[in-house]
Write a structure and sequence with these properties.
The protein is α/β, with parallel strands linked by helices and 316 residues long. The chain folds into 2 domains: 191 residues, Rossmann fold, CATH 3.40.50; 108 residues, Rossmann fold. Helix content is 41%, strand content 16%. Strands 1-2-10-7-8-9 form a 6-stranded mixed β-sheet, with helices on both faces. It has a 4-stranded parallel β-sheet with strand order 5-4-3-6. β3, α3 and β4 form a beta-alpha-beta unit. α3 runs parallel beside α4, α7 crosses α8 and α9 crosses α10. The N and C termini lie far apart (45 Å). The protein binds pyridoxal-5'-phosphate. Pyridoxal-5'-phosphate binds next to α3, β7 and α7.
Length: 316
């Protein structure tokens, strides 16, 4: 499978000494927050496969979609510019007067942005994207469309490779891997990687049934392009629910407390949309003794999501 090198790999695996001592279990972290700066986080691993296909098809414009503050859209816009292509984004929500965080970077990168309502996003984002791609074609461009979160079968292969990267690293055996789930591609890829411990995907929105179906759909797509197999849900992988909070991107005070605690103990920066909720789940499960032993927290990045939210900060 062709890839285009965008990420700084392999990302380090580190033991979190002070957090481990505090919770009475061993917590390690896989630093995918260090894959790059503009390209930080898990999305770049998917983009290595997706942008290679865009390039092979001779695309000059890359279209994708996500929430107003989507890390995936920002990373796609950065990758597009790094490869001399035009980024075009379909974003859910309303444009604020002053852009900040990921949206500021989208603007800085000169991404062409079209907005849609949450209902349009839910019901017809793929149709709108296809129509936007037609418009690019009519204007003489060559579009390449990436689905929400880069979570196609091809994108998920980036996380099969990430799992293999982990297995080749000098790291101990783990009792489980914990990762945030937003569109399912990261969990699908890790679940297909054949790790010798379970992968627990923490839903940051929606629910277990929705994401389990998404993981299966993405894995079927991946199996059609490469020889990968998704083991049955249960022992090898699971979607954990109960940590979504009131809504996508809404973090309750205890999530902010977790973010501040991890920052102060370890100098590790989490975000309120994805990694803060996933870490909150891991610490809660360890505290309740539902999980024990040695755990790997897969840090998927997202730190730009901290900016503009200072009024929500809570002391640990
Ligand atoms: C920082 C961060 N972590 C985790 C995720 C979840 O990954 P996935 O969409 O592959 O489920 C995303 C994107 O949705 C993200 O931006």
């Amino acid at each position: 499978m062709d890839t285009f090198s965008l990420a700084r790999l392999p990302t380090p695996v580190q033991r979190l000494e002070r957090l481990s001592a505090e919770v009475g279990a061993e917590i390690w972290v896989k630093r995918d927050d260090l894959t790059g700066f503009g390209l930080s986080g898990n999305k770049v691993r998917k983009l290595e496969f997706l942008m290679a296909e865009a390039k092979a098809q001779g695309a000059d414009t890359v279209l994708t979609t996500g929430g107003l503050q989507s890390n995936h859209c920002r990373a796609t816009a950065v990758a597009a510019r790094m490869m001399g292509m035009e980024p075009v984004l379909l974003l859910r929500g309303e444009l604020p007067e002053v852009p900040d965080s990921n949206l500021l970077l989208d603007r800085l990168l000169g991404a062409r942005v079209r907005m849609c309502t949450p209902q349009e996003y839910r019901d017809s984002r793929n149709e709108i994207l296809a129509q936007m791609a037609d418009e690019v074609r009519q204007a003489g461009g060559r579009p390449y469309v990436i689905p929400e979160g880069g979570s196609s079968g091809l994108g998920a292969l980036g996380f099969v490779a990430a799992g293999h990267e982990l297995m080749a690293q000098d790291a101990p055996d783990f009792d489980g891997v914990v990762v945030a789930v937003g569109s399912g591609g990261t969990l699908a890829g890790l679940a297909m990687a054949g790790l010798d411990c379970p992968v627990k995907g923490v839903a940051v929105c929606d629910d277990r049934a929705y994401f389990a179906a998404e993981v299966r759909r993405i894995a079927e797509e991946a199996a059609a392009i490469d020889s990968v197999v998704l083991p049955p849900q249960g022992e090898a992988w699971q979607v954990v629910e109960g940590y979504q909070g009131p809504a996508y991107a809404v973090a309750e005070p205890h999530v902010w407390q977790t973010i501040a605690k991890v920052a102060r103990l370890e100098g590790l920066l989490l975000d309120p949309v994805y990694t803060g909720k996933a870490m909150d789940c891991l610490l809660d499960k360890l505290k309740r003794k539902e999980w024990s032993g040695r755990w790997l927290f897969w840090h998927t990045g997202g730190a730009f999501g901290l900016f503009g939210r200072g009024n929500e900060l809570v002391e640990p």
